[in-house]
Amino acid sequence: MERLPYLKLALASIALGTIVSILMMQYDWMGDAASTAAGPIDTLMDVSIIISSFVFAIVCVALGYALVKWRVKPGDEGDGLPIHGNTKLEIVWTLIPTVIVLFLAGYSWVVLNDIEKEDPNALTVNVYSQQFAWTFGYPENGNKWSEGVLHVPVDRQIDFRMNAQDVIHSFWVPEWRIKKDNVPGITTDALITPDKVGTYQLICTELCGAGHATMRAQVVVQTQEEFDRWVKGLESEVPEDLLLTADQAIELERQIQEAEQGIDGSGVDETSAENVDQS
Amino acid sequence: MAVALRQPGWYRGALGALLGAAFGFGLVVALRAISGLDIFQTEQTGYPHVVVPLITTPFGFLFGFGAFDYWFRWAAGKPTIPDDHANHGATRWQDYFKFNTDHKVIGIQYVVTTLIFFLIGGALALLIRAELAQPGTQVVDPNVYNGLFSTHAVVMIFLFIIPMFAGLANYVLPLMIGAPDMAFPRLNALSFWMLPIAGIIFLSSFLAPGGAFDAGWTGYAPLSTGAPLGQSFFNIGVQFAGASSIATALNFLVTIITMRAPGMNLWRMPLLVWANLATSLLVVGATPFVAGAQFMVLFDRVLGMNFFQFLEGGDVLSYQHIFWFYSHPAVYIMILPGFGIVSEIISTHARKPVFGYRLMALALIGIVVLSYSVWAHHMFVAGMFDWLRVPIMITTLLIAVPTGIKIFSWLGTLFYGKIHTYSTAMLFSLGFIVTFTVGGISGVMLGMVPLDIHVSDTYFIVAHIHFVLFGGSVFTIFAGIYHWFPKMTGRMYDEKLGRVHFWGTMVGTWGTFIPQHWIGLDGMPRRVADYANIYGDWNLVISVFAFILGFVQLVFFYNMIVSWRFGPKAGNNPWRANSIEWQVSSPPPVFNFDEIPRVVGGPYEFGTPGARHAIMGGEDEPELPGPKPTKVAEPA
To answer: Are the Cβ atoms of B220 and A168 closer than 8 angstroms?
Structure first.
């Protein structure tokens, strides 16, 4: 059995991995960035792209080398060498990937803690989603509300508190890199610190029905002064039924149903069966 | 006619279906009358007059078709009709349309049926790509579009990939382990016949008022609980496809555990057998969860229960937990059998033992164990408890380790081999290694929570699932079909057309799914009929490649159909493989073996002079210790 040219194979893998990494780094995959979370997330992406490039290069070099070197000559009916394995090699290719993925997991954990750090000075904004529109409430500004347009101040952490009225929707501004589902019955949150003034688009990313593709809202990031002026100019307040907690909404729904069905809660009305049918 | 209606078969099956429909409809009418409800009023989403017959009609058909005759006689204490094997084996094409109990016939029934569903699912995909070729709405309106991608996914997952693997294993596995058939041949036939039923239910949802189910193949509540009638077709179709899957998995488990030929201990099982053992463990454990989730949605819809309706006190997120507790293991159900197929093919065509055979088998079991602990990585942004994210991220990333072991071991198998690349099966196996590596890499990225937060529900996900399901599972399916085609049909396919198919599929796959990563990272969400103009160019490119990919598949179908009829005779062992299925004739005799073979060595003993995997009955007995092979009773 001739020895494998380990050095050559390693060098070829490193060369190919480097070329692929350099090519991959030429393009800004994630597009524009406009929040403090974007930096760490994009760096994490770059690191994983580079590691992936080398993994991919190793597979390609090994496959290419084997095909060039051991492709059978025409007419050769013989068998390959009866090698059943190599315990040392198998331990190596179990341990090294384990180390790599544990490194990536640890690094991701650090990034996750970093982007979810709470700021006591955060501004709370309520997000209300329904088929197929977004509305926003500003509880720190007299519960003023804005339909279809989200304004937030720049360089201040926003604590988005999200509620869905009908089905699940998902809140995503690609430039902010953060996404969170809006789930009926519970309030979900996301902490985002926009760091670039500009106009962006809020996209619904959870399938929510026929209008899903068009469920968008405009996002305006502006200075604190401009934001204050804008929020003062808002006229209407958040409708009361949107302010109900989930438990209150469930209780209200129960009362409505009871009223419709004529059930007083203690006994069953004789006519209830038909009424259920009509409801 | 009267005789035909008493005999199991299509006439009695049609009658049974009619009676089943009438029974279901009558049951609803009677129950409504008894409870004092309007007999014919239909609730907005409930439609019990449709939903209940949708369940009873298939059962009526199966009774009529003869699926339960033997069991009923047995259960009723009547003398069972001595099995004359009339329903076993195929001598004419009509035998493939019977309730046939021969695992080889059932295998071919599965493969052909699922390939038809592959065509249908592919046509749906091309409709999707036609709509997405340009921004705006041109081909279908958004409602129809939502139905298209939902049925595309459901057909491909439940009616093509999962049952195709069951079909290939059905044919090959009993031969491979030296068994005369599966452990439960009647259950096996029942499993198959539930599959076209599921298919008809899924596809007929296009005829339902409100259109086909359109909440995605994931059918998230509460979108699904409030959806039009078509969603109930999904809920019920999944029950039949799922029951089919579970029964087959049980059958494989019992077959593998109890019916191996003498001498075949665990470490002499071919890796395809290991892979199906692993897959079956996943199916019996996980598939009941998807069935349960869909029953809960159905009950919410039809019976007014409140599992997932938050205004009634239901819990929306619990649907996703139950659904993904099946549906993540399901992606391994869709790839592990492929791992087995690729191991067989690479070893045979490199003329070398599989590198690290035992670690390969243990990696499969490792994937099974880990895959039960990663479901919530589909829910990193779903609003579930935050603390669950990091543990799930770690298990998710760790699953890359056994998968990596498999990739490296296949590469190790090639080293110092004598690699034959003339076979299309080998080309697809090698292509699989490269494409699947890309899918695995994007999978690791998706497992990392901060990256997942950005890319979940974007085209990056679409790219990833298609790289692992098309570049992974479907490549291995093609490899498996090409590899065992000579065994199944006794004829050779055309390698030239095979190469056209391989290279066209390779180019089509990369051209279609690589750019989807890019537009996903850049901000294009998935499941949208319309999108921002900046993604127009890439979507046009994707659509062009998708159509190339689609039309190249016609070469495959042409090759298969023509070769089956006119191909040159293949001989028993065209690949000079070692495993037992290649030591019998092509196609094998009705009961597989005159004498059960005796296994005397590992399955991949290439390159060791004189080493044998199995000694077939009727061969001159070499001097070997151990008991004589047992003789199987001749069929009457």
So the answer is: yes
Distance (Å) of CA B137 to CA B142, B266, B544: 8, 56, 18
Residue among A199, A116, A201, A104 nearest A160 (CA): A116
pLDDT tens digits for range A68-97:
999 998 888 888 899 899 999 999 999 999
Judging contacts by C-beta atoms under 8 Å, the chain B residues touching residue A93 are 404-405, 408
The reply to whether residue B433 touches residue A184, judged by beta carbons under 8 angstroms, is no
Q: What is the mean pLDDT of chain B?
A: 92
Predicted pLDDT of residue A246? 67
| Confidence band for B85, pLDDT divided at 50, 70 and 90 | low
ipTM of the complex: 0.89
Sign, CA dihedral B163-B167-B173-B174, equals: positive
Give SS3 for B90. Answer: coil
DSSP states along B336-384:
HHHHHHHHHHHHHHHTSPPTTHHHHHHHHHHHHHHHTT-GGGG-TTTT-
Categorize the per-residue pLDDT at A238 as very low, low, confident or very high, splitting at 50, 70 and 90.
confident
Q: What's the rounded Cα separation, in Å, for the pair B590 and B229?
A: 45
B280: how many CB neighbours lie within 10 A of its CB? Answer: 28
Which of A:100-129 have CB within 8 Å of B?
A: 101-102, 104-105, 108-109, 111-112, 115
Look at B527 and A212 and tell me if their CB atoms are within 8 Å.
Answer: yes
- Give B-chain residues touching A213 at CB under 8 angstroms: 142, 525, 528-531
Mean pLDDT estimate for chain A = 88
Share of residues in chain A with pLDDT > 70 (%): 92
Average of pLDDT values for A180-204? 94
Nearest to B522 among A31, A77, A213 (CB): A31
pLDDT at A176 over 70: yes
Q: B623: how many CB neighbours lie within 10 A of its CB?
A: 4
Give yes or no for A253 touching B (CB within 8 A).
yes
Name which of B381, B433, B606 to mutate to probe chain A: the one with the most chain A Cβ atoms within 10 A of its Cβ.
B381
Tell whether the model's pLDDT for residue A270 goes beyond 50.
no
Helix axes B400-414, A87-115, angle to 10 degrees: 150
Is the alpha carbon torsion for B53, B320, A215, A242 positive or negative?
A: positive
Residue B286: what pLDDT?
Answer: 94
Selecting from A45, A209, A213 the residue whose C-beta is nearest the C-beta of B531 gives A213
- Contact, B410 vs B343, CB < 8 A? yes
Question: Stretch B261-267: mean pLDDT, rounded?
Answer: 93
Please report which confidence band the pLDDT of residue B92 belongs to, taking 50, 70 and 90 as the band edges: confident
pLDDT of residue B446: 95
Q: What is the pLDDT of residue A268?
A: 44
Identify the structural domains of chain B with CATH numbers, from first to last: 2-75 (no CATH), 101-566 (1.20.210.10)
| Cα angle for residues A75, A78, A79 (degrees, 5° grid) | 140
Whether residues B316 and A184 touch (CB distance < 8 A) is answered with yes
What's the rounded Cα separation, in Å, for the pair B384 and B375? 12
| Per-residue confidence band for B616, with pLDDT thresholds at 50, 70 and 90 | confident
Backbone torsions φ then ψ of B95, nearest 5 degrees: -65, -20
State phi, psi for B381 to the nearest 5 degrees.
-110, 15
Phi-psi region of B92 (alpha: psi -120 to 50; beta: other; left: phi over 0): beta
Pick from B223, B382, B605: CB nearest A181 = B382
Strand partners, A171: A180, A204
Look at residue B525 in the predicted model and tell me its pLDDT.
Answer: 94
Q: Can you give A192-231 as a three-state secondary structure string? A: ECECCCEEEEEEECCCCCCCHHHCEEEEEEECHHHHHHHH
Binned at pLDDT 50, 70 and 90, residue A276 comes out as: very low
Chain B residues in contact with A105 by the CB 8 A cut-off are 390, 393-394, 397, 448
Q: Is there a contact between B310 and A185 if contact means CB atoms under 8 Å apart?
A: yes
